[in-house]
Specification:
Elements (H helix, E strand, L loop, with lengths): L2 H14 L2 E7 L4 E5 L1 H5 L4 H4 L4 H4 L5 H11 L4 E8 L2 E11 L5 E10 L1 H23 L3 E5 L5 E4 L1 H7 L22 H11 L4 E9 L5 E11 L7 E8 L1 H15 L9 H18 L2 E9 L2 H8 L1 H18 L5 E4 L4 E9 L4 H14 L2 E3 L2 E3 L3 E9 L5 H17 L5 E3 L2 H22 L3 E10 L5 E12 L3 E3 L5 H7 L2 H22 L7 E6 L1 H4 L4 H12 L6 E6 H6 L1 H13 L3 E7 L6 H6 L4 E4 L1 H5 L5 H16 L3 E4 L5 H9 L4 E2 L10 H10 L4
Parallel strand pairs: 16-17, 19-21, 21-22, 22-23, 23-24, 24-25, 25-26
Antiparallel strand pairs: 1-2, 1-5, 3-4, 4-5, 6-7, 6-10, 8-9, 9-10, 11-13, 11-16, 12-13, 14-15, 18-19, 18-26, 19-20
Helix pairs in contact: 11-12, 12-13, 17-19
The structure holds ligand C2E and calcium ion (2 copies).
């Protein structure tokens, strides 16, 4: 470039740019000064010539003299001048040389940077302020560059998440990922980056340096245009605890807290999955429904805590015989279900049931005791083409019910006949409910004969169902079902009321003989109700009869379900003035000492023994023993089911006080019974 032209450029620059160019000699004295900045300060070059350069500057800043010294020794450098004429400069120092190359002085070109520095200081101050805010808070803050490089990580972020200044986040696996949509946070970030001031929310997990995850909620704000920050700010919150609580809630919605097993809802979901897979693979799915027989007894006798222990041990036992892919769930108190996929329909389901059954029949040790459980198992098998979760479960339930019916502690495989029966039972259940409302129930009365006098001493009230389609149904066809449905309480109350009113009508119409009583059967479910004595009292009072005209029959097995409560209830009943009688005696296992404590009046010798009384030695021996026992305890002995003359003769011989049976009279309708009582026959 041409020398002259260069001078011109220098001149223009010096005249207009906010600079001052000062040359000094070897002693540091100004030899010339020019530049637009001088004019700005109202000075001329001449003002400065002859002055020591350092006197122009604030001498408290040793940098200036050091810089000048270095220039005078041949160095070219840039250094700030903190104050010169009250302004701040950035100065370029260079040595001046003679044509021979000797240093003759130096030139200092100083640029006014006062405004820029002020702005920088403000930024720094604001940044310091901002830092102070985030530095001391437990908030996790990141300032990212537009390329997602960490420019700043608050201490909390470093501590908790391990992010550090300089980390490149774009494409990093540690960055916030949403488990449902791993790319979601990046898309949010990129969208926010587009527009200054934009904000976005993200949620997900950050992988920690130890490999575990931390749940995070974050707000991203684009502050790239904000001079104090100039970045994308990510404010994060650790939501691990909230997430854990949410998960806990979710877990609880689908699991049984006691055993940690899936509950019904989750089980149905899994079963649906298994069925879908089996449909694709052409295999079968087996569902096992396990019900612990008489689990209530364990809870009642050992307490609920021990009961819980048993259930946990039970769970472990089941798990021990299952394959890893089999799914176990707990439905209710003592109901468990298992799904096995990919089974061979012909053999496997029963083998698995057998294995479960065997494993569960070994004793469980609870509080240093050995507890034996028996389990009834219902099995249903289906494949994707013919099974749906709900109906499979219903089928397994039906099979389980059958297992219970057939004596518990066994397993049954569902078959189509069961489905028909199940439907029939459902229909019957429905109809039975209606039967009570529609007054389809009837009470028949079977005479009980006093064997000493031969006269009618009473009658047993026996319920029947006048079914609109099936005709008159005996109690065996609906009482067990009513007991299961809980409907027996209502039916029992109704029969008792009918009996009380019948006594009243007979009393009015015929005048009943002294000692005559109507026997009414009570089910175990009625006996366990604390309200029973009140109900009996109400029935008697509303019919305004002598309570002595009613005898309540309770089977020996019903008494043994909860012996202590039974004694208390019987005492309350007895206090009302009614008589009490133990039904089907000889079939249960009551002890003599227990019987002694019962406030009863009579025992009914079960008809099983009466049936063989004239032919079977053993039956006769038992009947004899029952009569002897009754008499020892001061109770009457009544023989039921007397069908023949020979049987009648035998029960007389054994000393029975009363007898009941077809040989004497079958159960009679109200009208027939009234007619019989009017005739007052003797046997
Ligand atoms: P149960 O209490 O043992 O009643 C006697 C049953 O023996 C009656 O059957 C009666 O008809 C039958 N029976 C009478 N004499 C003879 C005989 O010579 N030979 C034979 N083989 N059977 C005879 P039913 O009426 O069918 O009642 C059956 C069971 O139903 C009753 O047995 C009782 O346990 C129950 N039951 C009947 N009515 C009621 C009721 O109102 N409430 C409750 N809880 N149970 C009832
Ligand atoms: Ca009875
Ligand atoms: Ca009986």
């Amino acid at each position: 470039m041409h020398g002259r032209g260069n001078d011109d450029v220098q001149k223009v620059a010096l005249e207009h740019a906010p600079v001052v160019a000062v040359s000094v000699d070897l002693t540091g004295t100004c030899t010339s000064a020019e530049g637009a900045a001088l004019e700005l300060l109202g000075r001329t070059g001449g003002d400065l010539v002859g002055c020591p350069f350092l006197s122009l500057c604030d001498v408290r800043h040793p940098d200036v003299s050091a810089a000048l010294r270095r220039a005078l020794t041949g160095e070219t450098l840039t250094a700030p001048i903190d104050e010169m004429f009250g302004l701040e400069f950035e100065a370029w120092y260079a040595p001046l040389r003679s044509p021979k190359g000797d240093i003759t002085g130096a030139i200092v070109v100083a640029t006014d940077v006062t405004a820029r520095r002020a702005a920088e200081r403000e930024v720094a101050q604001r940044e310091a302020h901002f830092r102070a805010l985030v530095q001391h808070s437990s908030d996790m803050t990141l300032v990212l560059t537009a390329d997602a490089e960490v420019r700043y990580a608050s201490p909390a972020t470093e501590r908790r998440l391990g992010f550090r200044t300089g980390d490149a986040l774009l494409g990093a696996s540690r960055w916030l990922v949403d488990s449902d949509d791993p790319g979601a946070s990046w898309r949010t970030f990129l969208a926010v980056r587009e527009t200054p001031g934009a904000m976005g929310r993200m949620e997900g997990r950050v992988r920690l340096t130890d490999g575990s995850w931390c749940a995070i909620e974050a707000m991203v704000t684009n502050l790239l245009d904000e001079p104090a920050i100039g970045g994308i700010v990510v404010n994060m919150r650790d939501i691990s605890e909230r997430k854990a609580a949410e998960q806990q809630l979710m877990w609880r919605a689908f699991h049984d807290p006691l055993t940690g097993l899936p509950n019904r809802a989750l089980f149905l979901d899994r079963l649906a999955g298994a069925l879908a897979r089996s449909g694709r693979r052409g295999t079968s799915v087996a569902v096992f429904l396990l019900d612990v027989d008489r689990f209530k007894v364990i809870n009642d006798s050992l307490g609920h805590e021990a009961g819980d222990d048993v259930l946990r041990a039970f769970t472990r036992r089941i798990v021990s015989v299952l394959r890893p892919d089999d799914a176990l769930a707990r439905f209710g108190d003592d109901e468990f279900t298992v799904v096995c996929e990919g089974v061979d329909v012909h053999r496997e389901p029963m083998t698995i049931a057998e294995r479960l059954s065997t494993a569960l029949s070994a004793p469980f040790s609870v509080e240093n005791r050995e507890v034996y459980l028996s389990t009834s198992i219902g099995v249903a098998v289906a494949d994707g083409s013919n099974g749906d979760p709900e109906s499979m479960l219903r089928d397994a339930d039906e099979a389980m019910y059958r297992a219970k019916e057939r004596g518990r502690n066994r397993f049954e495989l569902f078959d189509v006949a069961m489905r028909d029966r199940a439907i029939e039972r459902m229909e019957t259940e429905h109809a039975l409910h209606r039967a009570v409302e529609l007054r389809q129930l009837r009470v028949h009365y079977q005479p009980i004969v006093d064997l000493t006098s031969g006269a009618v001493a009473g009658a047993e009230a026996l319920v029947r169902w006048q079914h609109p389609a099936l005709g008159l149904l005996p109690p065996d066809r609906f009482i067990p079902l009513a007991e299961e449905m809980g409907l027996i309480v209502e039916i029992g109350e109704w029969v008792l009321q009918q009996a009380c009113w019948q006594v009243r009508r007979w009393e009015h119409a015929l005048g009943l003989p002294p000692g005559f009583a109507v026997n009414v059967n009570l089910s175990a479910a009625q006996l366990s109700r604390p309200r029973l004595p009140k109900g009996v009292q109400a029935a008697i009072e509303s019919a305004r009869i002598d309570p002595g005209r009613i005898t309540l029959e309770i089977t020996e097995s019903a008494l043994m379900e909860d012996p202590e409560t039974a004694i208390a209830t019987l005492r309350d009943l007895k206090a009302l003035g009614v008589s009490l009688c133990v039904d089907d005696f000889g079939t249960g296992y009551s002890s003599l000492s227990y019987l002694k404590r019962l406030p009863i009046d009579a025992l009914k010798v079960d008809r099983a023994f009466v049936a063989g009384i004239d032919v079977d030695q053993e039956d006769r021996a038992i009947a004899e023993a029952v009569v002897a026992l009754a008499h020892t305890l001061g109770l009457a002995a009544i023989a039921e089911g007397v069908e023949t003359d020979a049987q009648l003769e035998q029960v007389r011989k054994l000393g029975c006080d009363g007898a009941q049976g077809f040989q004497l009279s079958g159960p009679l309708s109200c009208a027939e019974a009234t007619e019989l009582l009017r005739r007052r026959p003797t046997w």
